[in-house]
Amino acid sequence: MNKQEQTHFGFEQVAEAEKAQRVAQVFDSVAQRYDLMNDLMSGGMHRLWKAFTIARSGVRAGSRVLDVAGGTGDLALAFARKVGKDGQAWLTDINNAMLTHGRDRLCDKGYLLPVAQCDAEKLPFPDDYFDCVTVAFGLRNMTHKDAALVEMRRVLRPGGCVLVLEFSQVWKPLAPIYDFYSFKVIPRIGEMITHDAASYRYLAESIRVHPDQEALKKMMERAGLEKVEYFNLTLGVVALHRGFKF
Ligand SMILES: C[S@@+](CC[C@H](N)C(=O)[O-])C[C@H]1O[C@@H](n2cnc3c(N)ncnc32)[C@H](O)[C@@H]1O
After folding, report:
1. Ligand 1, residues 95, 140, 167, 238: which to mutate, most atoms within 8 A of Cβ?
2. How far apart (Å, rounded) are the C-alpha atoms in residues 246 and 200?
3. 91 near 114, Cβ under 8 Å?
4. Per-residue b/e over 191-225, b at no fewer than 16 CB within 10 Å?
């Protein structure tokens, strides 16, 4: 097999075609307990990281926003509240279990959002359409991250921004504790709550093979985004990258 057709699935090298299937298995398995696990693993911090993302988005009443790999809909819901009835907040994801769970959850809260099941690498939206495109904790799972970033830029209107919220490279002195927590503690919590330690081992591994802050910044620039900057959150456990289309 040609080496170019290989990619990471956590620490494993797998065929590119296999990665999407393995990622799908992870999210099929964890969808029902995904929100509870997020709160438990991050001690509720993911809510602050997402609030920071929304604060940096520039989204306001009437804006059109696309949340890519939106899963159970945290960002899409927050954006729906901001854009109001004259705007649009789209919830999209490749995974039916995550998307269905997200759509039902948002319905229960009184929000009926436009929803689309789609691959970030081939977005079913016109060029120059959205004021803001977001992806939170999704890019890491994509097979062709460059292609996904190019697509996100394509559907963005000139002047709009792409926001990428993702695990990143933690401040070095914190690394030993962080490694212990992510490789020893998180899979155990995953086993207790979802009966699936392997999916949470994949989470820890996929973070380690994801581009660090500077590498992701360059990747976004290669995708044609400009004025790219990033904000380290919780000592680099997570970083928010923002880039504009002009
Ligand atoms: C960790 S969850 C993040 C969900 C949500 N954005 C959040 O912050 O809670 C990652 C999501 O990425 C989705 N995903 C993975 N590969 C994708 C792709 N190629 N296109 C769209 N979504 C994808 C998964 O189905 C999953 O719902």
Report:
1. 95
2. 38
3. yes
4. eebbebeebbbbbbbbbeebbeeeebbebbeebeb
Q: Is the CB of 71 under 6 A from ligand 1?
A: yes
Q: Is the CB of 151 under 6 A from ligand 1?
A: no
Q: Which domains does the chain have, with CATH numbers?
A: 3-172+199-244 (3.40.50.150)
Whose CA is closest to atom 8 on ligand 1?
136
53 close to 74: Cβ distance less than 8 angstroms:
no
- What the block records as the tokens of 84 is 């109001």
Residue 239 CB coordination number (10 Å) = 22
pLDDT, tens digit only, all 246 positions of the chain: 455 589 999 999 999 989 999 999 999 999 999 999 999 999 999 999 999 999 999 999 999 999 999 999 999 999 999 999 999 999 999 999 999 999 999 999 999 999 999 999 999 999 999 999 999 999 999 999 999 999 999 999 999 999 999 999 999 999 999 999 999 999 999 999 999 999 999 999 999 999 999 999 999 999 999 999 999 999 999 999 999 999
Compute, in angstroms, the gap from residue 95 CA to the centroid of ligand 1.
7
